[in-house]
Amino acid sequence: MVNTYTAILEYNSRHLRSCEELVDKNINAGVATEEDYMLKAMVIRSLSNTQTSNEAALAYLQKAKSLNIFDYPYLSKQEGITFLT
After folding, report:
1. Which strand (E) or helix (H) includes residue 76?
2. 55-75, pLDDT tens digit by residue?
């Protein structure tokens, strides 16, 4: 949870690479939540706007939705934004 909170702070400060590193720690450790996957998708989308990067972002958002630990309506919004870009 500390990595997730710190990743949110880094994202809000536009330190995207730092945010991605923190989120990747949770993903690699197998303790990632929906919020981690959503942040990963947002970072990918912010750093690159290609077909490949948008597909990767969608994959992370779909993984977040499949966890279904907490209900995050913001996931659908992020999915819509990714489809539009």
Report:
1. helix 74-84
2. 999 999 999 888 877 777 777
